[in-house]
């Protein structure tokens, strides 16, 4: 489902001494099925922006369209929009509340008015996607699970609503490397299978480099860079100026290149780096 943001500005607590402009004249077009990485320093406006996309916050100026429906039109039912736009907030496991995993994941689809068989079907599908075995875990308490598993249950709860736009706010925050990789792989698979539009907020350049089709970089409430990850990471100077950095391997590749190794400089992932380094080493040993 496409998302269009047009000349959007947002001010917290307007006309008070605490007035704060959090977003300024943002225009973004996101195509149906696109995977966007939203990055920026703390306080750059990422959370404020994602809350505009399902109408939790209303623009001070400008417009937001989901599937060509303008969220601020008088007769728009925001409840219906929120069924289409799912948000997985930071640390979503803190919002688990039911006594079993089944009930927790079933909560959303039950509220959609689906019948029990349809709900069961959705719970099974969502659990499969996040890699939690249905028969083994459905009657367990979510509170018996590890941190990474709890998070997967919470993501399954949003997935079971089958949103057409999925917003993930730092889905790997606070997880160990294994938990992080599992979640990233599941997000990748989910996107492949459900083909929904995804907007993922992340502080990790390595993560967005692996997953996103396009990056949007915010600084002080404005879009400062936008483009394919490779394109954005080539602008290291701009990134550094706003307190960000390219992935570590991009720096490594640049460094090797400056020392005379014939390595591509727009490397973004460990796999690409390995491939390039082996290519150069093989050539040198021939
Ligand atoms: N409820 C609020 N009231 C007043 N100002 C706010 C409020 N929420 C955020 N802000 C301010 O708006 C700006 C953007 O904040 P926002 O939380 O959107 O940034 P962020 O990029 O999501 O940061 P982080 O990475 O730390 O989550 C910041 O200057 C912040 O202090």
UniProtKB/TrEMBL annotation:
Does the record carry Methyltransferase as a key word?
no
At the top of the EC hierarchy, this enzyme's class is translocase
Q: Which residue intervals define the domain ABC transporter in the entry?
A: 3-245
Look up the domain of life of the source.
Bacteria
Q: Which organism is it from?
A: Caloramator mitchellensis
Subunit record text: Forms a stable energy-coupling factor (ECF) transporter complex composed of 2 membrane-embedded substrate-binding proteins (S component), 2 ATP-binding proteins (A component) and 2 transmembrane proteins (T component).
A Gene Ontology CC term for this entry? ATP-binding cassette (ABC) transporter complex
Q: How does it sit in the membrane?
A: Peripheral membrane protein
Keyword terms, alphabetized? ATP-binding, Cell membrane, Hydrolase, Membrane, Nucleotide-binding, Translocase, Transport
Where does the record say this protein resides? Answer: Cell membrane
Family per record:
Belongs to the ABC transporter superfamily. Energy-coupling factor EcfA family.
Is this entry keyworded Iron?
A: no
Q: What EC identifiers does the entry list?
A: 7.-.-.-
| Protein name, as recorded | Energy-coupling factor transporter ATP-binding protein EcfA2
Checking InterPro entries in the record gives: AAA+_ATPase, ABC_transporter-like_ATP-bd, ABC_transporter-like_CS, ABC_transpr_CbiO/EcfA_su, ECF_ABC_transporter_ATP-bd, EcfA2, P-loop_NTPase
């Amino acid at each position: 489902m496409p998302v269009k943001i047009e000349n959007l500005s947002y001010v917290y607590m307007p006309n008070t001494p605490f007035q704060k402009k959090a977003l300024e004249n943002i225009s973004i077009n996101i195509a149906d099925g696109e995977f966007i990485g939203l990055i920026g320093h703390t306080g750059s406006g990422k959370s404020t922006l994602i809350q505009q996309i399902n109408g939790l916050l209303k623009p001070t100026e400008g417009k937001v369209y989901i599937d060509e429906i303008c969220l601020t039109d008088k007769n728009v039912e925001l409840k219906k929009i929120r069924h289409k736009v799912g948000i997985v907030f930071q640390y979503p496991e803190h919002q688990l509340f039911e006594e079993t995993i089944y009930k927790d994941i079933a909560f959303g689809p039950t509220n959609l008015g689906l019948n029990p068989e349809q709900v069961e079907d959705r719970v099974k599908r969502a659990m499969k996607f996040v890699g939690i075995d249905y028969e083994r875990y459905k009657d367990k308490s979510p509170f018996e699970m590890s941190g990474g598993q709890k998070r997967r249950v919470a993501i399954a709860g949003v997935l079971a609503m089958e949103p057409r736009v999925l917003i993930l706010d730092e889905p790997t925050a606070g997880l160990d490397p294994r938990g992080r990789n599992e979640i990233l792989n599941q997000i990748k698979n989910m996107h492949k299978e459900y083909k929904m539009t995804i907007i993922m907020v992340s502080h990790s350049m390595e993560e967005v480099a692996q997953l996103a089709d396009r990056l949007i970089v915010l600084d002080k409430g404005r879009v400062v860079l936008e483009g394919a990850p490779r394109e954005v990471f080539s602008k290291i100077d701009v990134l550094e100026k706003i307190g960000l950095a390219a992935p570590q391997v991009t720096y490594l590749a640049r460094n090797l290149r400056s020392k005379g190794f014939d390595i591509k400089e727009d490397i973004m992932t460990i796999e690409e780096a390995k491939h390039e380094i082996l290519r150069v080493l093989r050539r040198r040993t021939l």
